[in-house]
Amino acid sequence: MNPDEAKLVALHILQENLPSSVSVDENALTKASFDGLKVAFTPSAVITPKEVTQIGKVLELANEFKIPVTTKGAGSSLTGGATPLRGGWVLDLSNLSSIDVDADNMLVRCGPGAVIADIQQKVAEYGLFYPPDPSSKDFCTIGGNIACNAGGLRCVKYGVTRDYVLSLSGFLPTGEYVQWGRETRKFATGYNIRDLWIGSEGTLGVVSEAVLRLIGKPDSRKTFLAAFETDRKALRAPIELSRLGIRPSILEFLDQWTVNSVQSFTGKEVFPGISPHPVLLVELDGDPDLIEKESVLLENWLKETAICSKTAGSVDEAEELWEVRRKGSPAMKKMANTKLNEDVVVPLGKQINLVECVNNLREEFNLKIGVFGHCGDGNLHVNFMYDSDDSGETSRAVEALKLLMSKVNELGGAISGEHG
Q1: What distance in Å separates the CA atoms of residue 79 and residue 84, rounded to the nearest whole number?
Q2: 3-class state of residue 105 by DSSP
Q3: Are 367 and 406 in contact (CB under 8 A)?
Q4: 221 phi and psi, to 5 degrees?
Q5: What is the DSSP letter of 249?
Q6: Is the Cβ–Cβ distance between 168 and 52 less than 8 Å?
Q7: pLDDT at 332 (0 to 100)
Q8: Is this prediction's pTM over 0.70?
Q9: Average pLDDT over residues 272-296
Q10: I need a surface site. Which of 5, 137, 171, 397 has the fewest CB within 10 A?
């Protein structure tokens, strides 16, 4: 049987065994052909399991007939992780979205298709908290978060996805069911395959259930926004705040170029009467007494180091301060039709070297490049904006990107901190 015949036989068997879960409709295939990277490869079928056991049956059949399988949830991956590069079948797990909270043991059992925001909302009803919060949390799924060990804004204080996974259930590429870890706070039996699966981007198996550790929900929050004379002064924050005993739950940086882009996009000045400067968005959370103590320390530090700052006195005011961070990406999309979105990570003390490198690349290659992100843990997003129909600008963007990655490596960093 040649490969083409094998594909047809496998698809026929699949449709017989799972008739209501298999689609070869052109619209379904097109929708499943790409993710957030927006580079399309058309699959031959889309399978949407209604029960966990169906995952194993699909993988067993695919293994027998050598059919490539790409697992997908919301398709929000920015690196092509949910793109069916080799065609084959797309295994869409978005319907397996159960959320079962065990408040006594402070954990939650989730299907791979459970949306992060839904998990957070559900556990909050019990006074509990699941901290990892990627910016796509309103639609990205826990399966995808586990696949790339997703982070988010709160990593600086609370850590990443891996820090909250107690156990994983799933299937090997052969269709064999496995469980890694247990619903316990400690587990020291055998190899730690659980952590190996987290961040493996679907190459080792398919997650069918995750048990996540929860913590108590913070009582309150306080938000600050500050502008600085230079990138260097702003990027000293992670080190200097730590020395002062301040543990922000969020510590975000935007370079001057990004701030200027946001102001042009919104038509509003971040700090009225002051030209664009690098800014930090800082959020404290926890016990009100602790926040009050840390707020005094933070405000004193800002008086000494920042040009100016704002403190939110209410939820609405906090949302206003957040606008500059949330508008960073949309503002850049208005500048060109294509974006190379890199999420590099470097040691805290080397972030200024990275930003200076970007400033040089912007000037040398005449490119639109913005930098913003999680300076509290050294994970900065570098966005190259260019017009794909301009071959010269495209070539310059690709060349500049290579130099950026070389610099990241030179600084002792990694080319991805959370996207994979």
Answers
A1: 12
A2: coil
A3: no
A4: -140, 155
A5: S
A6: no
A7: 86
A8: yes
A9: 96
A10: 5
